[in-house]
Write a structure and sequence with these properties.
Number of helices: 3
Shape: globular
Largest sheet: 2 strands, parallel
Distance between the termini: 16 Å
Number of strands: 2
Structural class: mainly alpha
Order of helices and strands: HHEEH
């Protein structure tokens, strides 16, 4: 979600790469809530931080809250936004409840990108 939002809000002037410490599939709930904003992330794939060349990165924004944050070596600006992972294996959560969790995470990420955007580009697209 963060990659899709950042690409939309920051535009082509900023190269955005998303990766995690334990990559897996893109969650269908993430695809669904992003489509509500007209952002298609169905073609995205979950990547490992090991696939990123740290020498080409200016800033790393970590979103981990409960889980272990990935470590990127090198001299990069590090920013931490502790946003709880909306995904869950809890069988008692309904699809509607999961979507709510994903919307909350999506909206928090979006708000933080908009707030942080001026450090990357002059005028974010909202």
């Amino acid at each position: 979600m963060a990659e899709g939002l950042a690409r939309r809000l920051l535009g082509p002037e900023v190269e955005v790469i998303s990766a995690g410490s334990k990559p897996s599939r893109v969650n269908p709930c993430a695809i669904e809530v992003m489509s509500e904003l007209g952002i298609d992330i169905s073609g995205h794939r979950s990547k490992s931080v090991d696939e990123i060349d740290a020498s080409t990165v200016d800033a790393v924004i970590t979103l981990c809250a409960e889980e272990v944050c990935p470590i990127v070596s090198g001299r990069v600006q590090r920013i931490h936004w502790p946003i709880p992972d909306p995904a869950s294996d809890d069988a008692s959560l309904t699809h509607t409840m999961l979507l709510s969790r994903f919307r909350t995470a999506r909206d928090e990420i979006k708000n933080r990108i908009v707030k942080y955007a001026p450090t990357f580009v002059k005028t974010p697209r909202v």
